[in-house]
């Protein structure tokens, strides 16, 4: 393939970076996202980094999709969209966002161990700083999930917001949720997804 053709193929690849804290359901969202994009006929690569996930540490998943994807990894300055399930994680991973990329950030705080033990303070002004420097969409996913009836669905609220913000509406996401979420939790997660789309 001529170099120009390869560059065009690489340019057609979209990069989604999902970041959060262990237990927030980041990996479930990336699996739903991957399944939906594959259904739509894209080549999709996904990678996950758990870190100290079990202890409330960072969890990141990277989803890359397009006509042909050669690597699952997103380099610094390459993410088209960064979805942060927690505010401080947005700051921690912002270097990976393209200058014209979109940040979808959950207005939610999970204190890290130093903050929880009083050795550090949770930083102030995160949302203002993001808004000053990037195209930023702030979602109160925890509040929306609580109103729906289950705080644990805030990850699916964020999935709905991501689908809307990134215009991934060609996929039947409700069908994908049916195939990836247990029947017991399906209805509430469909509500969460639709709420995220509205937000």
TrEMBL record:
GO terms for molecular function: oxidoreductase activity, acting on the aldehyde or oxo group of donors. Pfam families: POR (PF01558). Keywords: Oxidoreductase, Pyruvate. SUPFAM superfamilies: Pyruvate-ferredoxin oxidoreductase, PFOR, domain III. Residues 22-198 form the Pyruvate/ketoisovalerate oxidoreductase catalytic domain. NCBIfam families: PRK06853.1-5. This is Indolepyruvate ferredoxin oxidoreductase beta subunit.
